[in-house]
Amino acid sequence: MPRLPQRIVCLTTETVEVLYALGEQDRIAGISGYTVRPPQARKEKPKVFAFTTGDIEKILAVEPDLVLTFSDLQADIARDLIKAGIPVYALNMRSVDDILAMIETVGRLVGAEDRAQLLVAGLEAQIAEARAIADERIARSGRRPRVYFEEWDAPLISGLRWVSELIDIAGGEDVFAERARSPLARDRRPTPEEVIAAAPDIIIGSWCGKHFRPERVAARPGWDSIPAVNNGRMHEIKSAIILTPGPVAINEGLPLLQEILDACGQLR
Fold it and tell me: Which domains does the chain have, with CATH numbers?
């Protein structure tokens, strides 16, 4: 019999989402306080850490045999857990392919490879369908609407790679697609003048931790010349959906992008 982890601590919400989707939630011994999906996890599982801060003793108290972390942002707690003798698996999703690979990896870790493959296949089918719908829209309109995705407002921060890729899949053109390839927020800081010059047809805001305020965007100096502002095409997608590199970004975030782009589909 394979020796599979029985007491997993998930320090980000996406691995919690995947384990529940695979029917392996009984293996979860603790979660991050920022976990939002699925909602029942917050009721059923002890919160043992925030995202980058917390007390390692709370993690150790649930006696994990595996901790799942995310990126260099959790490098310090990963180091401390390893020093304490706890196995750690660090994930680092930056793209849509990375999200799908993460699901497969988590499935392998808990012996649920077949169910993970089914979950991935469903998401891949959704992506393929979205591409086909986008292709039809583009064929009718003759163009891709130009999209500026704003992750933060002060300073301006444009979209992450998986967000940029989802915009492309949905039939839009991310005006800062090249910047999106950098994992560092400091490389995704356009100036207001660059956004004006990009002339996006659509602005999508997802200000992590606070509500998007389109009236504040419209009031920025010179932004009244941007087509998206002129035509009132400013939309919000909640960060818990689109900025989470897990299944939710695809199965909920992608349809929301499609809705926004469909409404703009008559652009020529």
Answer: 8-92 (3.40.50.1980), 118-263 (3.40.50.1980)
Q: Which two three-digit tokens encode residue 31?
A: 């979660």
Work out the angle at residue 255's Cα, subtended by the Cα atoms of residues 150 and 109, and round it to the nearest 5 degrees: 90
CA–CA dist 19, 36 (Å, integer): 13
pLDDT tens per residue, range 69-102: 999 999 999 999 999 999 999 999 999 999 999 9
Cross-sheet strand order for the sheet of 47-49: 47-49, 28-32, 8-10, 66-70, 88-91
User: 250, 41, 227: which is closest to 127 by C-alpha?
Assistant: 250
